[in-house]
Design brief:
single chain, alpha/beta, Aspartate Aminotransferase, domain 1, Aspartate Aminotransferase, domain 2, 2 domains
Length: about 375
């Protein structure tokens, strides 16, 4: 059996996405920045793509640029801070993606003070967040949906607290969110979140790898130079084929959102119920049942069995799963970092595996996975007991 259950890492490219990539690659040979006929044709097409993408996302076209993915989108916003002459305070969460969390040392090298928030049981605490705000706070970066556990952070409430603090102190604080795992998975509105910027990636929604989006109310000055593309914020020739394919993927997840959400929820219930009925398995104490987590990501711990062993055994049985984030899968400390900042002990963190589903994942596949996982963990426990 070959069953892919690592959709949070990357998704299979949708057929219509591939078709769109080939179509646009053939139709637009020109550089969108060129002034000849083919270039102007490409430039107009790019403008239309930006407008249509922005419309789906509920934002204005002038607030959207295209990047190479979520990591670059995060990096662009964080790097822009290095131009600030005043070295203030930065707030980031300990559960964020490495492209955010690992900026801690960079900021410190440039003289900023970095405050890292914990997330008890998977969620940023509003009171703790408010205590960390100060008149020196310049930038806040907290992800919307966690890529390891799927927990949805209270971004709207955190931003409201930030805006009230801004008005009280007469200062401006930039609030950024990594929304890569949220796009197409949960119902949210950038307008309601009121964030200053947000990052997205196409390959998480069955789009192509190597392209993403960045929303910003206002794009700051960058420290690098180039050809002036993407409002002079992200330099480099735009790939119309990739951007168009990304839009095709966005169309699919938008049109099928409610069906996909219901399917993911049903699959998650199967996984949760299996763990409840198995003494060897348990989900981390995350409130999966009250819409506080994305339904496509579920974290399970296998008592006393290292995550590396489980993922290898399940891979041999034909199931593709991961031990945490793909970006940290080769480094155990990095992989377990998110769970530690959520307050889970080392034993639990070291045995945690992530199961993530997608639109084409069936209940039969997930049930087969659960049955196999239950049997394999039970067998491993017996083997350990004999030693």
């Amino acid at each position: 059996m070959n069953c892919y259950l690592d959709w949070a890492s990357t998704t299979p490219v949708h057929t219509k996405v591939l078709e769109k990539y080939i179509e646009i690659s053939k139709a637009f040979p020109g550089n969108p920045s060129s002034q000849h006929a083919e270039g102007k044709k490409a430039g107009i097409f790019l403008s239309n793509l930006r407008a249509k993408t922005a419309e789906i996302m509920g934002i204005s076209a002038e607030n959207l640029i295209f990047t190479s993915g979520g990591t670059e989108s995060n990096t662009l916003m964080h790097t822009s801070l290095l131009r600030n002459k005043r070295r203030g305070e930065i707030i980031i969460s300990g559960i964020d993606h490495p492209s955010v969390f690992e900026y801690e040392n960079i900021y410190k090298d440039f003289g900023f003070v970095v405050k890292i928030l914990r997330a008890p049981d998977g969620y940023i605490d509003l009171g703790d967040f408010e205590k960390n705000l100060s008149e020196k706070t310049q930038f806040i970066s907290i992800m919307l949906v966690n890529n390891v556990t799927g927990t949805i952070q209270p971004i709207e409430e955190l931003v409201k607290i930030t805006r009230m603090f801004e008005r009280k102190k007469g200062i401006k604080i930039h609030f950024h969110t990594d929304a890569v795992q949220a796009l197409g998975k949960i119902d949210y509105s950038l307008k309601n979140l009121d964030v200053d910027s947000a990052s997205f990636s196409a390959h998480k929604i069955q789009g192509p790898k190597g392209t993403g989006m960045l929303f910003a109310k206002k794009f700051p000055q960058m420290i690098q130079s180039g050809g002036g593309q993407e409002f002079s914020f992200r330099h480099g020739t735009e790939s119309l084929a990739l951007i168009s394919a990304s839009y095709a993927g966005l169309l699919q997840v938008t049109r099928n959102y409610y069906h996909n959400y219901k399917n993911s929820s049903n699959l998650q219930n199967i996984i949760i119920n299996t763990s409840k009925n198995s003494p060897e398995l348990f989900t981390l104490p995350i409130n999966y049942e009250n819409n506080k987590a994305a339904p496509n990501i579920t974290t399970i711990c296998c008592r006393a069995i290292p995550a590396e062993v489980i993922t290898r055994v399940m891979n041999d049985r034909g199931f593709s799963i991961s031990a945490g984030s793909a970006c940290s899968s080769k480094d155990r400390k990095k992989r377990e970092r998110v769970l530690h900042y959520m307050g889970f002990d080392t034993k639990a963190a070291s045995t945690a595996i992530r199961i993530s589903t997608g639109p084409t994942t069936s209940s039969e596949q997930v049930q087969q996975f659960c049955n196999t996982l239950h049997n394999e963990v039970k067998l491993l426990h017996k083997m350990l007991g004999k030693r």
